[in-house]
């Protein structure tokens, strides 16, 4: 079990809304003295006598000075976000007002909250497991709809559901096996081996699926790098501009226009694609800067998750230098400058666009999306997006496989039991039933103050 953190039973205060000017700012208090502290500043009513989940309008006064007219919401323990008494003060959204109110709360005994401390308290009071607490941070940090969906799913306990049932059943078997060890001389079996094998198979599948989901989870959180490469003048910069709907990169009829790489991010159906426009690649150039640009383009090809190979419609695709360098890469061949021309024998392997006239672009962006997203991203499916989770899952998988191997070899219970223990330990560390301050500090330091 975790150790209680020093000082987590005092009362904390923080600004819950963003710094800056807004219509309203919200200040939050949590802890045993939260209601008493606000009551000392709120003179028109006795808030300590008011029921949970009620709101009260009134003036806050400190040292006979009126501070602001505010709305106070009361949430009594245990039915609050943190599980403690929580007070939310909605005041007028000026920095000065919010700071004065927080100072008044501190004068009455509150302490400024540390990053993530509200959520940490919610975790310590059993309001959520560690993966849910982490998804609060992910949700706040989310920039796209897909990031938000993945975080929301885990906040609702996606992980918890998947792992709790595995954990409970493993504990059950482990207890029965321990019992067998106590009766070792009598050679009895309490744990049903067939059922245990079934559980192991089911658990392994679940864990493997979770691990596999990291591929997409990583895409959702970090986005996808797409390098646009091709010969000089193929229209790479024009394509970047068209994708961006902006004249971002310089376009000209002179071959070798782009020297340095230009990078821009576009949100396609909730996934962030980081496009990189590169210098056109040609074999013979004496221009030193262009040569450096070409070298950079080749590096970008290596770093990209997907490469768009842009080809002028009059270009010869066979025996092409770029073609050879792309053979091992996830790539799309895109034929440009189609304009108003009707292509009779379209190859299903290629995409046909006019970067200038902005046609064929949607089919291209759809193809990019489909290359990285093969399953629906919604709040129903668990997506592993966090490398801490991935590391534990990989260990869980390892132990599950080792237990299974042991079972197949008919190893004795005393040889299998330790692997079950280690597996349970990993599940516990992942969900936070087993934890220590280092892990907690790591997880909660990524939060903003006030959450
Ligand atoms: N007709 C037509 N012209 C295009 C199209 N796309 C680009 N061009 C023209 O092709 C020329 C080269 O375009 P850029 O976008 O600069 O080509 P690039 O591949 O970035 O070239 P470098 O940076 O030199 O490697 C410009 O004159 C563009 O206007 C298109 O779809 N149709
Ligand atoms: Mg260019």
Identify every distinct bound molecule in the structure, by name, code or SMILES.
guanosine-5'-triphosphate, magnesium ion
- What is the name of the CATH architecture of the largest domain? 3-Layer(aba) Sandwich
General shape: flat
Largest sheet: 6 strands, mixed
Number of helices: 14
Helix content: 40-55%
Would you tell me which CATH topology of the largest domain applies?
A: Rossmann fold
Q: Please, could you describe this protein's structure?
A:
37% of the residues are buried. The protein has three domains: 12-129, Probable tRNA modification gtpase trme, domain 1 (Gyrase A, domain 2, 2-Layer Sandwich), CATH 3.30.1360.120; 152-219 and 386-432, tRNA modification GTPase MnmE domain 2 (Four Helix Bundle (Hemerythrin (Met), subunit A)); 223-372, P-loop containing nucleotide triphosphate hydrolases (Rossmann fold, 3-Layer(aba) Sandwich), CATH 3.40.50. The model is unreliable at 1-7 (pLDDT under 50). Strands 3-4-5-2-1-6 form a six-stranded mixed beta sheet, covered by helices on one side. The chain has a six-stranded mixed beta sheet with strand order 8-9-7-10-11-12, with helices on both faces. The protein has helices at residues 34-41, 95-107, 117-124, 130-141, 145-155, 158-182, 193-222, 236-244, 288-303, 321-326, 361-372, 387-408, 413-431, 437-444, and strands at residues 12-15, 24-30, 54-62, 65-75, 86-92, 111-112, 224-230, 262-268, 271-277, 306-312, 331-336, 350-352. It is an alpha/beta fold and 451 residues long. A hairpin with a 2-residue loop joins strand 3 and strand 4.
